[in-house]
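Can't paste images in this forum, so I'm doing it all in text. The chain is below; anyone willing to post the predicted structure tokens underneath?
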Amino acid sequence: MPEAARLIRPGDADAIARGRHGDPFAVLGPHEVKGGTVIRTFQPQAESVFVLAAGGETEMRRVHPDGLFAVKLKGASAYRLRVLRHDGGVEEVDDPYRFPPVLGDLDLHLLREGTHLRTFEKLGAQVRAVDGVAGVDFAVWAPNAARVSVVGDFNGWDGRRHPMRLRHEAGIWEIFIPGLGQGAIYKYEVVAADGRLLPLKADPYGHFAELPPKTASVVWELGPRDWQDGAWMAAQGSRNDRHAPVSIYEVHLGSWKRVPEDGNRSLSYLELADQLGDYVADLGFTHVEFLPVHEHPFGGSWGYQPVGLFAPTSRYGTPDEFRTLVERLHGKGIGVIIDWVAGHFPNDPHGLHHFDGTHLYEHEDPRLGVHKDWNTQIYNYGRTEVVNYLYANALHWLEQYHVDGLRVDAVASMLYLDYSREPGEWIANRHGGNENLEAIEFLRRMNQVVYAEHPGAMTIAEESTAWPMVSRPVHLGGLGFGYKWNMGWMHDTLRYFSKDPIHRRYHHDSLTFAQLYAYHENFVLPLSHDEVVHGKGSIFGRMPGDSWQRFANLRAYYGFMWTQPGKKLLFMGSEFAQEREWNEDASLDWHLLDDGRHEGVRRLIRDLNRLYRTEPALHQLDNEQAGFAWIDCNDRDNSVLTWRRLGFDPSDFVVVAGNYTPMVRESYRVGVPEPGWYRELLNTDSEWYGGANIHNGGGVQAEEVPWHGHSWSIRLRLPPLSTCVFKRER
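Text version of the structure:
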């Protein structure tokens, strides 16, 4: 028998050389045989290879012309390889195939049953040491693949060099590659069951990625961090509670502010940590909400078509720098919410689509698996490993990055099987209905997991339909979210304030209708990025009238919003009346603040946030009927509304009057429940905000004149296009 045949079977040698062997660990590395140990290694770049063991140095025999080497030794429990390359270089390496499996039996059991909530600690690329040798564990789920390899600069992107071991119990491929560490560039090369070589895949669990348009994953260790936000995290629950003031500034990191003198680049995470933090703190917002920070290939998607769900985008810095951004915002008293995209993913070839040559993460049937609106793939929520991937991702952001909440994008598209579909384009559930039962169960379980593991965090649903109990506990039949965006309130009020005041008497109900359902959910009142794109213009741009009226309208609208029940959300730029529609490729128009009218709007937002935070009546019962009472909601002829907001102490209330025509209302009588002096806390027509400064001299004295069902009343001078807030001095 030829020497080569005694060291390796010819069929195995050929399969390894072609990169088509289904079990490379059965061939490569050390294997006990009669009379000693056979060691095999595939080194296509090598002229010759030597084994360095305790017994000395032994040259290996080339057993296949493509670079497969083997040798039989009497024993070699530990060894290294010296590789003499064709280019004359020499390197000493550890053999990946002499190391034990990456995943333990318990990991495999939990992964198989879908209860491993912290898969991000096991899958992906984990920097660690094995038997005193530093390297990286790689593990990836691809149960239907014929072969999976790790490729990168370190092996010339040759998938034959580091084929992985398949753990059949869970469909996971794994390998420990010694000598790699932080910053290594890699992808997975996948051969489908039918022999097709698929496009190189980024790591679904990758912690970091190359700067787009490059698409490879980057080894990045998210090790222990000496976090400096302990006090914040201890109080997280009280800051996110529905009885707390929650005022959110929504931000697209790449276009908030740019550096024109440096190629108009975006700010980095570290620059944002200081500049954005100081700005938001000055304006008094309690939280920021970032449009998705997941890695995404197409900037025009604003992050809503992510490929790297576990990786903060490299556009603005490293994962550790994103941690610093969160930490510094906490240090300035600001919570951090991220948009979380669990409803779909894009078709980019390096992503999850057809990951192992099959519809692994998505449904195979396009009637279930393709979003018509966005031409993206819908997760298969009925697959254990897929929902486990998403549960773990939610916890990953809360634990590894200390974010305070997840705003779940496009929940409506997840709940309905017929979302944006015509008859015949969707498949009914097992009961014949249009509800996506698997997605519903996923959302409920996701919320249960988040609140069980992190009771102080918050989840928010972007949900625009009449689906009941979105923000009610799962055990009561709800979906379990902490809050829900009130899209109906947004549409109604924007429509009202966009109309010429002369017509508003006919649309009075647009401002009052929300009270019919305002307490069915824990609502957030959103004026989000969706309202300033796709030809809609800016919020300011929709205000009618001449320049004076447009600014007055906007100020009155914000006054109305901040004094209505519900948490608040405002997209960046709207706080100073950005005039043009938002453009993700350009900075906000900060020069507008040189105009006192724009600066006045920003001053108003600052004062509204201060008032909202300091007056319990404006936030404690934001989501309960007891926190709101109309004084008069029927004066449609004058387009005037008056109401009270109340806190836990019903005697601690504020009175709000909104005059939404350009007419001054003199001696306008408003009923109040208590006598005393009613101080004017805020007037959107103040000259400080750019208004005409029509006011009430600091306050008014209640008179014993019954009005609006109350024993007392106050006579007010209502400025044109204004919202005014009053409080009885106790």
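The longest strand covers residues 133-141. The mean pLDDT is 96.
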